[in-house]
Specification:
With about 325 residues, the chain is of the alpha+beta class. It has nine helices and 14 strands. The protein folds into three domains: about 55 residues, Winged helix-like DNA-binding domain superfamily/Winged helix DNA-binding domain (Arc Repressor Mutant, subunit A, Orthogonal Bundle), CATH 1.10.10; about 210 residues, Bira Bifunctional Protein, Domain 2 (BirA Bifunctional Protein, domain 2, 2-Layer Sandwich); about 45 residues, SH3 type barrels (Roll). Helices cover about 30% and strands about 25% of the residues. The chain has a seven-stranded mixed β-sheet with strand order 3-4-5-9-8-7-6, sandwiched between helices. It has a five-stranded antiparallel β-sheet with strand order 13-12-11-10-14. Helix 6 packs across helix 8. The structure holds biotin. The site of biotin (BTN) has 20 residues, from helix 5, strand 5, strand 8 and strand 9.
Length: about 325
């Protein structure tokens, strides 16, 4: 009921009468009043005027189940959410739920992670109050070989979601970091449970630096946040809902062909490496090349100095700018 009341308050520019809420939800005036008091405690500014009702004046950067649910406009992606003030890792929560057959598209969100995971076994610093840590659970009927492409869909969704909510242009560093001014804003970690030719479930975890103002020393020069880039706070729940909307769209396009042909152009238009000289770092082998963009299956096409074209597969390979991280 709380999420529904919040949604009504947000969607209405006018007062909503207490009696109307009682009728809609079949509850007493006291129950409605209690919900309003809870919302105020969480930081919502709600005006209550006798004979008129309730009106939402402002909502802060609140992360809660009710706030996220009240903003979600999707059919299935993030339509069902599970929110934690604190958990080990939202990827772990999603994987456990995947084992138990939770609904396709369930989104796990935390305000803080105590064992946040990055790619290649690294840790992902996950303090409270300023970032997005979320993981979507999917059961795609695809060959496991195709699953890495889903990560690229999420990269598009994050960049487009950021643009939709903040107006800020960010780019993708192949395959799936979101960057701005040469620094990383978001990382994506996809994990899956598979049989030889069958995916049991895939989880796509997204960590976004939203309102942080400082970073640990080791990533100070390569990390940034939306707040640092824009000079103002961003409401995390709004961004989560926008990213889910974008992801749902990209995923449905993907399913039509089971490859990235329907989103390749969009991805390449966001790709910061495109038409740039890059350093390709393979285990035990490092060389320079010119990046041309991704193909239909998400590999990076590069031109070598001798004019030959080569396809770079993600995984153990990383691609950097010739002079730095991007
Ligand atoms: C990277 O190394 O770039 C990927 C970072 C992914 C971090 C996110 S935060 C939400 C989800 N839960 C985790 O433990 N990791 C991912």
């Amino acid at each position: 009921m709380k999420a529904e009341i919040l949604r009504l308050l947000k969607e209405s520019n006018n007062y909503i009468s207490g009696q109307q809420l009682c009728d809609d939800f079949h509850v007493s005036r006291t129950a409605v009043w209690k919900v309003m008091e809870q919302l105020k405690k969480e930081g919502y500014q709600i005006e209550a005027v006798r004979n008129k009702g309730y009106r939402l004046i402002d909502s802060p950067d609140v992360m809660s189940q009710a706030e996220i649910d009240s903003l979600m406009k999707t059919e299935w992606a993030g339509r069902h959410t599970v929110y934690y003030d604190e958990t080990d890792s939202t990827n772990n929560r999603a994987k456990d739920a995947g084992e138990k057959g939770a609904e396709h598209g369930t989104l796990f969100v935390a305000d803080r992670q105590i064992a946040g995971k990055g790619r290649r076994g690294r840790a992902w610093e996950s303090p409270a109050g300023s970032s997005i840590y979320m993981t979507i659970l999917l059961y795609p009927r695809l060959s496991p070989m195709k699953a890495p492409q889903l990560t690229l869909l999420m990269a598009i969704a994050v960049a487009e979601g950021i643009r939709q909510v903040t107006g800020l242009d960010t780019g993708i560093k192949w395959p799936n970091d979101i960057v701005r001014n040469g620094k990383k804003i978001c990382g994506i970690l996809t994990e899956m449970s598979t049989e030889i030719d069958y995916i049991n479930h895939v989880v796509i975890g997204v960590g976004i630096n939203v309102n942080q103002e400082t970073f640990p020393q080791d990533i100070q020069n390569t990390a940034t946040s939306l707040k640092l880039e824009m000079g103002q706070n961003v409401k995390r729940s709004e961004l989560i809902a926008a990213i889910m909307e974008q992801f749902e769209k990209c995923y449905e396009t993907f399913l039509q062909t089971e490859d990235l042909s329907g989103v390749k152009e969009q991805y390449n238009s966001l790709l910061v490496n495109k038409d740039q000289d890059v350093k390709v770092l393979e285990p035990g082998n490092e060389y320079e090349a010119h990046a041309l963009g991704i193909n239909e299956t998400g590999e990076l096409l590069v031109r070598l100095p001798d004019g030959q074209e080569k396809v770079i597969y993600a995984g153990e390979v990383s691609v950097r700018g010739v002079y730095g991280y991007v």
